[in-house]
Specification:
heterodimer, A: 4-stranded antiparallel sheet, 4 strands, disordered N terminus, B: alpha/beta, Rossmann fold, 2 domains, 6-stranded mixed sheet
């Protein structure tokens, strides 16, 4: 009987098979991991920028949300002081006001010094600087609430001007929003570029291995089996590239954040990344791998469907 | 499930042409039955390889009807092709081994494609390679094998999963007479176990070695029937499973 007893067992029960060793491993390699590394690094930096901008806007918005500033604009110092005191007294009794504080003259002097000069002989106190009253509301400073406060203040201080603090930064918030959309758009473009690169690499690999694929088809291999080989190869390439890209991106983020921290600006100080943001950034290479594998699968299956 | 008397292949007025060229095969009609041993002969360019391509589903005909294992192969959905192809062992004229795989892995490929576990692969593949005389060349890549050795690997790959039908295109063209005879005996062993064997060859000596075989002859794309192979019932059908012992 010899070998036939074992050889001639009928293998019909096998299901769709683990991946046979159809194609040489890493057959998609070459520039692919590097391309993916660059894409992932740029995506990481873009995402980190978008998230930091969002955090900066959120921090600034939280700080200013319930803030209202009352300016007493009159040149006569005594009248200015009288109106300021009257406004503080009225607003302190208003139910929607959580806190009211007149900004001290020394603070005002400090604020205007950089613009008005601090050379010897300068006397900023001689300037008719408006009295400022910082008001904190219990909720957000809506237009209705600002109008209500104005109705309370104007009878006791005719020269009072009332502004919601958030209103001053509205153009900044709009700009931040635009930058966030730009970051999102950049990420979308990078994803599209990654898809295109994977698509070309997969088609190229299919062309290089067309003969082997035809043989495997003739031996009863399914499209999914063949596609799995390409997917696995692409997953390795994308994972290697993704890891390298993540490392490069993180180094870039840390370097940039240190440089921005050195500016000492209040708005920039809010542009930090929280731990949730870092998790999102760490997930970018995983998303990249998933995108690359999915693209390879769809590309290969579509190409195989055109073969008999 | 193949019925004992059911035809395994049926061609009815099949024609094949590439583009607008003249038909390579014209009005080809025949029936193959389970357990029979067929030789397909004809001069070079007669259309033997084209006919075999239709048999192992590498090509769709330009016209006509093909039934395979009782199913219309013309309208067979693409996703069902792998299941049918696994029932057909093919020895290609140009071997078509996978270059980056060793002889062992080439022979194991049909089993792996069929989902056989690795522990069930090593022994039969090793034994098969031993039998075709390549036991000591298991790890060799095709590029390092001679033409005859490549052909033996191709044959081992075609028969390793014991197909219902074996289609071989000039399977002994590159081996010495002793090995040719040995391979022929392997085909006969498979045939006795119920596998329908179709061997395309123009080697008359080879055909004479299998006296019970049925012969189909192709001449300029048209089929003739010198031994009554195309008649029903066939002149002398082999009995499936009559003798499981190989003539080793």
């Amino acid at each position: 009987m010899g070998f036939l007893s074992t050889l001639f067992l009928r293998w019909r029960g096998g299901s769709a098979a683990s991946d046979p060793r159809l194609l040489p491993e890493a057959q998609l390699s070459g520039p692919m991991p590097w391309v993916i590394a660059i894409m992932i690094a740029m995506t990481v930096v873009a995402a980190a920028s978008g998230l930091a901008l969002r955090n900066a806007a959120a921090t600034a918005s939280a700080d200013l949300e319930g803030g209202v500033t009352v300016q007493i604009v009159t040149a006569a110092p005594a009248e200015r002081l009288r109106q300021a005191a009257a406004v503080v007294a009225v607003l302190a009794k208003a139910p929607e006001v959580a806190e009211v504080r007149q900004v001290a003259q020394e603070e005002l002097n400090t604020l205007v010094e950089p613009w008005l000069g601090t050379r010897p002989g300068d006397d900023v106190e001689a300037l008719p600087i408006p009295a400022l009253i910082d008001v904190r509301l219990k909720g957000a400073a809506t237009a209705d609430q600002v109008a209500h406060l104005r109705a309370l203040v104007v009878p006791v201080a005719a020269s009072a001007r009332i502004d919601a603090q958030a209103g001053w930064l509205a153009p900044v918030f709009a700009a931040i929003g635009t930058l966030q959309w730009l970051a999102g758009g950049l990420i979308a473009l990078l994803a599209i570029a990654t898809i295109a690169a994977v698509l070309l690499a997969s088609r190229n690999a299919l062309g290089n291995h067309r003969e082997t694929i035809e043989i495997v088809h003739m031996l009863g291999g399914t499209d999914k089996q063949i596609a799995r080989v390409f997917q696995r190869s692409m997953a390795f390439d994308a994972a290697a590239g993704g890891l390298a890209g993540l490392l490069f991106g993180v180094v870039t983020i840390v370097t940039l954040s240190r440089q921005f921290a050195g500016l000492g600006s209040g708005m920039v100080a809010g542009a930090v990344l929280h731990w949730q943001d870092w998790i999102m950034i760490a997930a970018i290479p995983l998303a990249g791998v998933a995108l690359a594998v999915l693209t390879a699968r769809v590309t290969v299956l579509a190409a195989l469907r055109r073969m008999l | 499930m193949i019925q004992p008397d059911a035809e395994i292949v049926q061609f009815d007025n099949v024609g094949l042409r590439y583009g607008t060229d003249k038909e390579i095969l014209a009005d080809v009609s025949f029936t193959l039955y389970p357990g029979c041993f067929y030789f397909l002969t004809g001069a070079s360019g007669a259309g033997k390889t084209s006919l075999l391509k239709l048999l192992y589903l590498a090509q769709r005909p330009s016209r006509g009807l093909i039934r395979l294992f009782g199913t219309d192969a013309i309208t067979l959905p693409r996703e069902r092709l792998p299941g049918f192809r696994r029932r057909i062992g093919v020895v290609f004229q140009d071997f078509r081994l996978v270059d980056h795989l060793s002889a062992f892995d080439n022979v194991a490929l049909p089993l792996r494609v069929a989902g056989v576990s690795e522990k069930d692969i090593a022994r039969p593949v090793g034994e098969m390679l031993d039998w075709v005389g390549l036991g000591d060349r298991q790890h060799a890549r095709p590029a390092t094998l001679s033409g005859g050795e490549q052909q033996r690997v191709a044959i081992a790959r075609a028969v390793i999963a014991r197909p219902d039908m074996l289609v071989a295109d000039e399977p002994t063209g590159n081996v010495d007479p002793d090995m040719a005879l040995k391979l022929l005996r392997l085909f006969e062993s498979l045939n006795r176990l119920g596998t329908t064997v179709v061997v395309a060859t123009h080697d008359v000596h080879l055909i004479r070695k299998v006296p019970e075989s049925l012969i189909m002859r192709l001449d300029k794309g048209r089929l003739s029937d010198p031994t009554g192979a195309l008649r029903y019932p066939p002149r002398r059908p082999a009995m499936a499973g009559a003798d499981a012992s190989p003539p080793l």
